[in-house]
Amino acid sequence: MRNIDFKFFKGNVLNEYNKIKKNDGTPFKVYSPFWRNAEQFYLERLPDKISKVKKCKKINTLFKNQIKSEEILPKSDWYKKFEKYWVPSEQKAHENLDNFVNKSILNYGVDRDFPSIKGTSLLSPYIRNGQINVGDIWQKCKKLKSNNVSIKKYTNEIGWREFSHSLINYFPQMLKGNLRKEFDKFPWVNNSKFLNAWKKGMTGYPIVDAGMRELYETGWMHNRIRMVVGSFLVKHLRINWKEGEKHFRNCLLDFNEANNVAQWQWVAGCGADAAPYFRIFNPILQGEKFDKQGDYVKKWVPELSKVPPKFIHKPWEMEKKYQEAINTIIGSNYPMPIVIHEKARADALSAFQSIKKKISHQ
Ligand SMILES: Cc1cc2nc3c(=O)[nH]c(=O)nc-3n(C[C@H](O)[C@H](O)[C@H](O)COP(=O)(O)OP(=O)(O)OC[C@H]3O[C@@H](n4cnc5c(N)ncnc54)[C@H](O)[C@@H]3O)c2cc1C
């Protein structure tokens, strides 16, 4: 055995995860007190006591043979389509941050919920790939020296990212299964037909389908829509959240193990400080509230482009005659809903009751 000394560094997070814990030394499982502590701890460390790294004048080459960037690209060019949507560079990441902070951050609190507007920073793929550091983002926001609630809401999201990383570090078993063990008994449904319909954006629920198609086309999906499609998978279809997590892992350019696993468990209700399972998103109402005119749906589900706003989130309710007149036959040009919302909701609630009963009988 060779005794090799090593050090580990926190990487792209604000704090070393093991620095943030409750007074009794145990990890936080609730977001708000976690973030209050984590933000305070980070603030107190600024400016960093460790002397700043001076700009390196001479570039040292540690390896004899270097890999050219072209050599690490995948063999097939599936990634080419993303060039339409993303410019992967540090410069672009900082440009996006500047634009966001100068033009959009003050409206973030409201705009961030509407998928048809560019109301969020779109920085996640850059953070994920190390082109921007979360510390730089946090500090840029704090330099605004404003109590504006939108700025706070934005830095709170960085806080959710910190929280997810903390959870995964303290509870690495989350990567394999439910944090809340009672969910190990949840009666998930195996239905590959429904799972494929979900992945392809063919569930018959326009807001869900728009999100899934946006994900496949751009490698990114709006946060509200991630919650809607996630809820639809685990509650309306009762498919295990792990299937959703796997699909997101394969498609997201911002895929991050900590965020993805913690957020899927948040959606499914089996994680820390999670949305309770019984709170079931209604995909019709979510659409009507956050995409009233249907602009987002029409962008990603063009076969519904002639459907008026009144029916855009429930196109199956249009009269047959009207469907013919606008050349949009539901069940032919676009699918009928694969499940009926009210029934799926009732079934999900009774499945949830069944695990509660099992626990109380133990
Ligand atoms: C089911 C599900 C899976 C997700 N998987 C991922 C993932 O793999 N990688 C990922 O980076 N985010 C994930 N998220 C969180 C969130 O959807 C994205 O971070 C956000 O949409 C990225 O867009 P943005 O940069 O414009 O975000 P903004 O709203 O501009 O937020 C700024 C930054 O804060 C962080 N952030 C924002 N929301 C969250 C959140 N809810 N949890 C943790 N961090 C957040 C991100 O780093 C983001 O770039 C997931 C959310 C859900 C519901």
How would you describe this structure to a colleague?
With 362 residues, the chain is mainly alpha-helical. The protein has 2 domains: 18-47 and 82-170, Serine Threonine Protein Phosphatase 5, Tetratricopeptide repeat; 176-362, DNA Cyclobutane Dipyrimidine Photolyase, subunit A, domain 3 (Orthogonal Bundle), CATH 1.10.579.10. The protein is built from 15 helices and no strands. The chain has helices at residues 31-44, 90-104, 108-111, 124-128, 134-142, 149-170, 192-200, 206-218, 223-236, 241-251, 257-268, 283-290, 295-300, 320-325, 341-361. Helix 6 packs across helix 11 (257-268) and helix 10 (241-251) packs antiparallel against helix 11. The mean pLDDT is 93. It binds flavin-adenine dinucleotide.
List the defining traits of the structure above.
2 domains; binds flavin-adenine dinucleotide; DNA Cyclobutane Dipyrimidine Photolyase, subunit A, domain 3; mainly alpha; 15 helices
Residue ranges: pLDDT <50 for 5 or more in a row? none
Count helical runs. Answer: 15
Sheet bearing the most strands, described?
none
CATH level 4 superfamily of the largest domain: DNA Cyclobutane Dipyrimidine Photolyase, subunit A, domain 3
> Which percent range fits the helix content?
40-55%
Counted up, domains total 2
Could you spell the SSE succession in H and E letters? HHHHHHHHHHHHHHH
Rounded Rg: 23 Å
The CATH topology name of the largest domain reads DNA Cyclobutane Dipyrimidine Photolyase, subunit A, domain 3
The tally of strands reads 0
Secondary-structure arrangement, i.e. CATH architecture of the largest domain: Orthogonal Bundle
